[in-house]
Amino acid sequence: MTHQFKFDHENKILLLRIEERLTDKLARALYWEVRKYSTSTDASAAIYDLSGVTEFAISPEMIRDLVNREPAMLDATKRPRCLVAPAVFGLAISRLCEIAVEPRNPLLKIVLSMDDAFSALGVQSPHFEPLDSLT
User: Fold this and answer.
1) Which helix H or strand E contains 5, and what residues bound it?
2) What is the pLDDT of residues 63-79, one digit of tens each?
3) Which of 26, 41, 92, 100 is 20 to 30 Å from the Cα of 85, by its Cα?
4) Model pTM?
5) Which sign, positive or negative, has the C-alpha torsion 63, 38, 83, 23?
6) Maximum CA pair distance of the chain?
């Protein structure tokens, strides 16, 4: 499995964990899945965990497209999100993305670990359960 969505019902946090290869096609599909799951769960926060990605096969054009889109999670000025970026992705690239999306995504933070994400969201020991398909 290249990705999985989980949800912490108590803290209302949506977790997207991506593993293996991240491609343009997968990034495009995940944008819409984040929108679907964040809406259906009424998530108040999200964590996008890229720490399991072993290959970033995502084009500069796709990064630009994602940066210029409206946030996948609605009400971005009210719902904090954390992107867990592995060292392979590069903190500098992650930070550039964070700066680029800041006007529309002021609560998006780039962090280095899941513990950093939990700290940024102000939660301790969340309990995530897999989300079943909404179809």
Assistant:
1) strand 3-8
2) 888 878 888 888 877 88
3) 41
4) 0.85
5) negative
6) 38
Residue 135 banded pLDDT, cuts 50, 70, 90: very low
What's the length of the chain?
A: 135
Query: Do 47 and 121 touch, CB atoms closer than 8 A?
Result: yes
* Cα–Cα separations (whole angstroms), residue 116 to 92, 102, 124, 130: 17, 19, 11, 21
What pLDDT sits at residue 14?
A: 97
Question: Looking at the domain assignment, is residue 83 inside a domain?
Answer: yes
Tell me if 96 is assigned to some domain.
Answer: yes
**91-101 and 60-68 are packed helices; what angle lies between their axes, rounded to 10 degrees?**
30
The burial class, CB within 10 Å (0-12 / 13-18 / 19+), for 44 is: middle
DSSP secondary structure letters along 74-105: S-TTTS-EEEE--TTT-HHHHHHHHHHHTTT-
Is the residue at 27 inside a domain?
Answer: yes
C-alpha 94/C-alpha 13 separation (Å) is: 21
Count how many domains the chain has.
Answer: 1
50: in domain: yes
